[in-house]
Specification:
single chain; mainly beta; 7-stranded mixed sheet; 4-stranded antiparallel sheet; globular
C-alpha cells in the first residue's frame, strides 16, 4: 500500500527558514519524479519546485528561485523542500507529490501528501 506523509509545516517569521519532508512508502522513490505544489489563490495547486527523474531537470517557480530547494534521501525514501528567506506571501498550503508522469515540468497524477500549512508572519 502506497502512502505519502508530509511533516514540518508551521509558523515562521519573515526571513526565516523551514524544511518540509515527504516520506513515501510502498514504492521506490528513485523510480519517480518528485515535486512540491502550493495552493494558489484562484488557481488551485501550482508547482513550486519539481524534479524530473527522466531528464534530471529541476523546475522552480519564478518567485522561489534562489530561496527554495528540493532534495532527496533515497535511503529514507524521503524528499524535502528547503525554504529560506521566507516571505509573508509564501503563506499557504504545500503539497508533495510523486509520480512517473510529468505535465508542464511537474509530476502529474501520482501520489499526493495530505498538505501542510506554512504561515510566515511579518
Amino acid at each position: 500500500q502506497r502512502q505519502v506523509v508530509e511533516s514540518g509545516g508551521g509558523l515562521v517569521q519573515a526571513g526565516g527558514s523551514l524544511r518540509l519532508s515527504c516520506t513515501v512508502s510502498g514504492l521506490r522513490l528513485d523510480d519517480y519524479s518528485i515535486g512540491w505544489f502550493r495552493r494558489a489563490s484562484g488557481k488551485g495547486r501550482e508547482g513550486v519546485v519539481c524534479f524530473n527523474r527522466d531528464n534530471g531537470s529541476t523546475y522552480y517557480a519564478d518567485d522561489v528561485k534562489g530561496r527554495f530547494t528540493i532534495s532527496k534521501n533515497s535511503d529514507a525514501n524521503t524528499f524535502y523542500l528547503e525554504m529560506r528567506s521566507l516571505k509573508p506571501e509564501d503563506t499557504t498550503m504545500y503539497y508533495c507529490v510523486t509520480s512517473r508522469a510529468i505535465y508542464q515540468k511537474c509530476p502529474s497524477g501520482g501520489y499526493w501528501g495530505q498538505g501542510l500549512q506554512v504561515t510566515v508572519s511579518s
